[in-house]
Design brief:
six-stranded parallel β-sheet, two-stranded antiparallel ribbon, 327 residues, 8 strands
Length: 327
């Protein structure tokens, strides 16, 4: 196909998508009540076509009919997408997703979206918000994410050879350039007892958390554009170590003492805007029962109702705070 024909085909597809979006918006009885698109980033060892993940997207569209759900993926093939959760350069992966969202015929013409991240997909979505300038997110919700990294690597299933191969590299040479640019979990590994090595070698987390001397002001500005940042921690999480990383907390591995976010420099010196978000009532610390990624439908429905849906939320009075933890 010649260049002109390819451009023409792209224009037709894009124009059709825009018309479809306009028709959808114009069919709504009240402007602003149409649901925002929802982007979802899955976790380690999962893929974007997994039945469980798809059912969550379907549930979001049931709670808010008409929701356009985009499942973030790094490969069209399910096996390739799962492998990319273990192997790859996270910086390149975030850049790839940023570019692909800008090419989606719906999202490219949508000024703001909502975002839902599961496990490592949560910190990757936060990095996407910080780094992807054309993306504007209203509400970011993360479940069991490792915002302050992990201090131990997870165990693999007995026949999960992809996971086992990644773990062997992780344990043998965590801070090598090879591992830091090719093994995904290593790029958010953060041992409080080895902070110097972490700050010097971390390919991903030390940067998106603005932990080095240079603080990237773009990360702070982009994160401050959020209207809500809700972070769920699983009460009985034994997969993410420490589980409190879901709330940006740090745990002393010897004493077990927890330094909560508000007592840490990342908050007090506001390295990425969390203090301002908190002072504006936009930062929610939430807890849910069960082990890692134990997702109850009741919790999901409540979350979707509170944080996602119409671009203009109707005023229902004081927001429900039954499961919001006061730290």
């Amino acid at each position: 196909m010649g260049l002109f024909n390819r451009l023409l085909a792209f224009a037709v597809v894009t124009y059709g998508a825009v018309l479809s979006r306009v028709d959808h918006v114009s069919s709504q009885p009240h402007p602003g009540l149409e649901p925002l698109p929802l982007i979802i980033w899955h976790g380690l060892g999962d893929d974007y076509k997994a039945e469980g993940l798809q059912s969550i997207g379907d549930l979001a569209a049931t709670v808010h009919p008409g929701t356009y759900v985009y499942y973030i993926h790094l490969d069209e093939d399910e096996a390739g997408d799962r492998t990319a959760t273990f192997f790859g350069n996270v910086t390149d992966q975030v850049n790839q997703v940023c570019e692909e969202l800008g090419q989606d015929p719906i999202l490219a013409f949508t000024p703001v979206v909502d975002a839902l991240g599961f496990s490592q997909g949560g910190q990757f979505l936060r990095a996407l918000i910080e780094r992807c300038n054309h993306l504007r997110v209203r509400s970011l919700v993360t479940f069991g994410s490792q915002h302050n990294g992990i201090a131990e690597f997870q165990n693999c299933g007995s026949t999960d050879w992809v996971c086992e191969a990644a773990n062997q590299l992780l344990k043998s040479s965590t801070w090598s350039d090879l591992v830091q640019t090719h093994v995904v979990p290593a790029q958010y590994f953060r041992d409080p007892d080895r902070l110097e090595e972490y700050l010097e070698n971390s390919n991903f987390l030390a940067d998106v958390n603005n932990e080095r001397d240079y603080k990237n002001p773009r990360y702070t500005a982009n994160l401050l554009a959020l209207e809500k940042f809700a972070m769920y921690m699983f009460r009985d999480d034994k997969t993410v170590i420490p589980k409190e990383s879901a709330w940006f907390a740090e745990v002393n591995r010897t004493s077990g003492n927890i330094t909560w976010l508000r007592d840490r420099d990342i908050y007090r010196e506001d390295w990425i805007g969390l203090k301002v978000l908190d002072e504006q009532g936009k930062l929610d610390f939430l807890e849910t029962e069960g082990p890692h990624m134990n997702l109850e439908e009741e919790v999901l429905v409540e979350t979707f109702k509170k944080y996602f849906g119409p671009s203009v939320k109707q005023n229902d009075g004081e927001a429900e705070r039954n499961n919001v933890v006061e730290l």
